[in-house]
Each structure stands twice: as structure tokens, then as C-alpha cells.
Amino acid sequence: MIRIEDLNLAHGGTPVLRDINLTIDRGGIIALVGPNGAGKSSLLSLIARLRPLQTGRIFIDGLPVTTTPGRELARRMAILRQDGVFAGRLTVRELVSLGRFPHNQGRSTPQDRARVEEALVQFGVADLAERFLETLSGGQRQRALVAMTFCQGTDYLLLDEPLNNLDMFHARHLMQSLRRMADEEARTAIIVLHDINQAAAYADRIIAMRDGRIASDGTPGEVLTVDTLAAVFGYRMQVTAAAGRPLVLHHL
Amino acid sequence: MTQSVPEPKKAEWRKRITLPRMAAAAALVVLVCLSLLIGADTLSPTQLANDPEALELLLASRLPRTLAALLTGSALAIAGLIMQALVRNRFVEPSTAGTAQSAALGILLMTLVFPAASLGVKMIGATALALLGTSVFMATADRLPVTQPHLVPLFGLVYGGVIGAVVTFVGWQTDLLQFIDIWTSGEFSGVVRGRYEFLWGAGIIVVLSWWIADRLTVLSLGREASIGLGLDYAWTLRLGLLVVSVIAALTVSVVGIIPFVGLVVPNIVSRVIGDNLRASIPCTALAGALLVLGCDIVGRLIRYPYEIPVATVMGVVGALLFLKLIRLRPSHA
To answer: How many structural domains comprise chain B?
Structure first.
């Protein structure tokens, strides 16, 4: 369980997050949606202890993020940021293997290697395993990074716009992999998504943010209504249904 | 349950580097033999077998000089490699980022303030100043825009130049310019038994850096990725800084500044085997040792029986290699 209490964050005097209180249970896909600058990525960074807390508290399975050793947290929670990794001349396999670093500190066991191979196959980068990252396309690189994050084998995955650079095939594949992970292993994914229909189709819970506040929080059916979407994104859009899920015609 | 998976193509990985490795080992043997035999007094293998004086020359001068070149070369290459991982910029190394100049300033100040102190004590001062100078460089480099990777080495050159100028100024004012030349222009001609042994410390640090190679690889992914993987980022950064500073202090005090080694060697090795430091640290250390020893031998031969300092030879060879590297890798930094 992730518990966030009275979280506030200001950047140079401008409030970025205001009075966030959240409880996220284990197991499931939680989508963070909202317009640019709503504070989604900041919230994710604070949970992942990439930035210092100003006020408020965050606990991962009861462990406070500020004082728990980094390695202990890294075995429970993995984060994938946008543009957060500067790997150039590492091969895809070397990068994905680093996902096991919190568990083995670089000394791979046969189990670690098996998990790496599994992740390479799962995200369709096994054929690229010996290639250097700098020789890959943006989408291939993104898949390698996702494979590394999965390979960390944590109960919680924090993904900041993981569908960036992915084509439809791989975007759908990633969402389905997350869905399986949540259903079969009761793992938890917290994802910042810009494509609201991906959230509609795959998320168990959608948290909509605006101006650093939580504007709406609930199931896709509860959050994806004309009025709520207008309050969050600032314009009215049609909402229909497809395959038993809401479908937002946000582009019309 | 985990099913058996094929070994991650280790055989292939080995194939990729074994031939160069064999060539490097052969080159090492050849260069060491040449280095032992070449000098103002020629030594031949037959002399060594019969003449005790020749053997003494070998043990007191040629062997220490050869070992010093090998140790210095590997340590400088590793210092460059680690610095590039810390700054995440391929175009920095201790002699172009103020580290070596700060170490020279440190040993100069120690000589002024504690003239009677032993070389070991002076080196502590050199290490301290190298740490300080490099920390200031890193803190400033951190503020430069990421979109302009070439600003970092440019700033480093200016910064190192300014500290170098301070060294010269202080030396001028205190009549120590001759000493300064010893620290700033690297050469091995003064290396004899009893005057190079501190360099074994640099060798030990090279081994230590291999031991922490995986942590340094994670560090090179950047702050956020490091924290995400549970690395103690700040601590590892400081450890890397310490390694670079101690290497700079040891090599500057014993042989003087040798440019370009830390720049060209890690870049060449990275092109061949990549940036996984567990694999690249041994290759980088060996290649650095070969390059410096080779340049020292060339310096002994060009104006035989006179010598050209290794720093001068390396300045030419390194600059040529560096230009070649820039042409090969135009947009990545």
C-alpha cells in the first residue's frame, strides 16, 4: 500500500502540489491524468523519492520514503521517468540487467539472468539484445527501458508517460502486460497517461489532477464523464462507450 | 518456476574481445621488453646475463621507469573513464577539468608551507586540493545546459587554465618555477627505484575501481535512474571524485601532468566494447598503460640519446587521436 499524507510542493514560490492525500492499495492499474502542468510527474517523482519532500509524508508498505534505505525501496518500487536515463553505449541486455541491481548489486545469479531474458522476450527486444542503445529508435529504446523497469521485479511500478514513442502495437502490448501483471501477480502500476482512452480501457482507477490538486478520483466510469472532463481539461468532449468501457471523443 | 535459459551469449561476447585482448597482451610484452632495453646506455639481453652492472641498471632504473609508465597510464585512463561517468560527458578528463592543475597547486602550496614534509604528506595536500577543484568543476558543470554538451569540456579547459595560471604565478613569486615544471610537464626520466613506489597506490585504486564498476555504471545512467535502482547516488559520486583526485595527486606528484590519456583511451575503448564498466575498466587500464609506455619509448628514441618528455609526445599523439575521435563521433557527447 502507498499512503500519501498532506503533501504540498512549491517550486520557486509557485505551488505545484496542494494538499494531496491518497491511499493506493496493492494490485491494479492506477492512471494519473490531467492537463500539462497539473503536477502528475511531480507527484510521481516525490513518491519515487527523486525529489526531497517539502511537507507531508509518503509511505511505501509502511516505510517512509525519506528515511528508508534506497536499496530497500528499490526492491519494492521501480520508476521509469521520461528522459531519465542517459545510457549510450550499453547494450540492451546490459541495460535490462541493471534492473536486477537492487537485488544483486551487479553480481547476476542464474535467476537474475533468467528474468532478464524473460523481460527481453516480453517486450520484444530480444532481437536487439546485443545492440547499443544509441543505435536504437526512440520506440525501441523506450521498450528497453520498460523491460528494465519490469525486470526490477517490484510490487510497485511508477511509469511516467511510458507510451511515449511507442506505436499502437507496442502501446497496446505494454498496457496488456501491465494488466496481466496486476491481475496475475497483484502488482501495482501507477501510470501517467496522456491518452485518456488507454486509461479508460485498462485502468482500475483514474486520478485526475488539475492545478496541483486531485480533481477527481474513481473508476473510469466515475471519472470519465462530460462534466468532470470539462472541469479537468477545460473543454466539453463527448463520451460514449465501446467494449463495455467509456470512450472519450476528445479530439472532436 | 524458472526454466533454463541459454547463457546470455557469453561465447559471442568473448569472441568479440578475445582477439584484441591477445594482441594487447602481445603488445604489452613487446613494449615492456623494448622499454627495458632502450635508454642512453644500451642494454642487450646477453649483457644482462653476464654483467652485474647492467642488471643493476635494469633493476634500479629501467624496470622502475617501465612500471611507472604502466601504472601511470592505466591510472590516468581510469581516472578519465570515471570522470566521464560522473559528469556524463565524454570530453572531460582530469587534466582538462582542473583536477590535475588543482593537484599541482596543492603540492606547490604544501611545498611552500611545509617544505620539510615528506612526499606522502604533500600528496595528502595535493589530494585535498584536487578534490576541492574537481568538486567546484562538477558543481559548475551541473548548471550548464544539458543541450550544450560541449560547454562542459570548454568550461573545463578554461577552468583548468585559470588554476594552472595560479600555479605559475605562485611559482613565479616564490622562485619555484623549476619545481612546477616537474609537476606540470610529465616525464619519466627522473624515475628510479625509490622514487616511483607511490604509483603502486594508483595501481591499487585501479583495482578498487573495478570492484565498484557496477555501481559506477549505474551512476553513469544519471541521478534519477541511480536513485530508482537504489544506488546511494551522493555517496558513490563522492567515492568516484575521491578516486579521480587521488589518482591525479599521485601521478602529478611523481611524474607530472600527462595530457589526453584520460580522454582518448576511454573513448576508444567505449567505441569497441561499450560503456559497461565491468567489461571496460580492465581494457581501459591496459590500453592506457600501453599508450603511455609506447609514447615514453618514442620519446626516448626520437632524439636518441636525448629524451623528449612523455607529456610532449602524448600531446601530439593524443591530439591526433582526439581529432580522429571527434570526426568519428560528431554529434554524441
So the answer is: 1
Radius of gyration of chain B (CA): 20
Domains of chain A: 2-76+155-249 (3.40.50.300), 86-153 (no CATH)
How does strand A63-64 pair with strand A55-60? antiparallel
Partners of B214 on chain A (C-beta within 8 Å) are 101, 105-107
- Chain B residues in contact with A132 by the CB 8 A cut-off are 274
With contact defined as beta carbons under 8 Å apart, do B310 and B292 qualify? Answer: yes
Which CATH number is B167's domain given?
1.10.3470.10
Which among B6, B8, B274 has CB closest to A132?
B274
Could you read off the pLDDT of B59-79 as tens digits, one per residue? 888 999 999 999 999 999 999
Q: Tell me what ipTM this predicted complex has.
A: 0.91
| Coil vs helix vs strand at A10 | strand
> What number is the average pLDDT over the span B160-177?
92
**How does pLDDT run across B256-291, given as a tens digit for each residue?**
999 999 999 999 999 888 999 999 999 999 999 999
In A, which residues are within 8 Å of B275 by CB distance? Answer: 87-90
Nearest-neighbour CA in chain B from A34: distance (Å): 23
Separation between Cα atoms, residue B255 and residue B316, nearest integer Å: 18
Q: How far apart are CA B333 and CA B330, in angstroms?
A: 8
Spatial distance between the Cα atoms of A39 and A16, rounded to a whole number of angstroms: 6
Q: Distance between CA A155 and CA A173 in Å, rounded?
A: 20
- Chain centroid to CA A120: 19
A72: which residues sit within 8 A by CB, 6+ positions away?
Answer: A63, B230
The CA-atom distances, in angstroms, between B146 and each of A117, A241, B43, B333 are 33, 44, 54, 10
Q: Which residues of A touch B5 (CB under 8 A)?
A: 113-114, 117-118
Q: Which stretches does DSSP call E strand in A12-81?
A: 14-24, 28-33, 55-60, 63-64, 77-80
**C-alpha to C-alpha distance for B126 and A47, rounded to whole angstroms:** 42
CB pairs under 8 A between A and B: 103
- For A15, A21, A53, A225, B250, the CA distances from A217, given in Å and listed in that order, are 21, 11, 23, 12, 60
Disruptive mutation site among A47, A66, A90, A150 for chain B (greatest number of B CBs within 10 Å): A90
In a domain, B273, yes or no: yes
d(CA B264, CA B256): 18
- Assess contact for B199 and B72: CB atoms under 8 A: yes
Domain of B261, in residue numbers: 60-328
Say if residue B331 is exposed, middle or buried (CB neighbours under 10 Å; 0-12, 13-18, 19+).
exposed
Instruction: Write down the pLDDT at residue B191.
Output: 87
